[in-house]
Design brief:
single chain; mainly alpha; Cytochrome Bc1 Complex, Chain D, domain 2; 2 domains; disordered N terminus
């Protein structure tokens, strides 16, 4: 969890790496609507507002972050058989177009089922836990959890999806480039993880 470093846009670097991989030529690139209907809507919805907590909401997510994750799936840096198949033949321009499309959509926050737990999550998010060494999430993801550039927006995301991603960082089934997330979330208790999910899912 650290501020994005001043680097060239990630999509540009990935486009160079992917120059030799298969994908439609620029003149044959498909429209965003075609791609969303064929690749994205079944899980994430046409507007990026997934109805199932098994799949993340993409609406309002930072475009740079979405691009990075699609390239991570494409290059095998983030593992998902399902996602890898969906992005395998996308060109760099199509990845960028999809990221910008979903980023432009408004996310709809959920209603916390336990307001008291959400209040606890707010405290952890904004201030961390000094007694156990948990760093405030807001340090990197911002006071409103909107993220920045390659740091994801957390506000309005499904609570259970947030919980699963925290656990994935804890058990190292999901990797972060600088490993900061792994060290930050390790000290979280199960109650704190659930509380964070409750708080973040209910803000916009």
């Amino acid at each position: 969890m650290r501020p994005a470093h001043p680097a060239a846009p990630f999509a540009v670097a990935c486009a160079m790496m992917l120059a030799s991989t298969a994908g439609p030529a620029a003149a044959e690139e498909r429209s965003v609507r075609e791609l969303v209907e064929a690749r994205c809507q079944n899980c994430h919805g046409m507007e990026g507002q997934s109805s199932s907590p098994n799949y993340p909401k993409l609406a309002s997510q930072n475009a740079e972050y979405l691009q990075r994750q699609m390239f991570n799936f494409k290059l095998g840096k983030r593992r998902s058989t399902e996602m890898k198949a969906q992005v395998a033949d996308l060109s760099a321009a199509e990845v960028q177009a999809l990221a910008e499309y979903f980023s432009s959509k408004a996310v709809i926050a959920d209603v916390a089922f336990d307001p008291a737990l959400a209040d606890k999550g707010r405290e952890i998010y904004l201030n961390g836990n000094r007694d156990t060494g948990v760093t405030a999430c807001a340090t990197c993801h911002g006071p409103r959890a909107h993220g920045a550039l390659f740091l994801p927006r957390l506000a309005g995301q499904h609570a259970s999806y947030i919980e699963r991603q925290i656990h994935a960082f804890i058990d190292r089934t999901r990797q972060a480039p600088d490993m900061v997330m792994h060290s930050v979330v390790t000290a979280l208790t199960e109650d704190e993880i659930v509380a964070l999910g409750q708080y973040l899912s209910g803000i916009d």
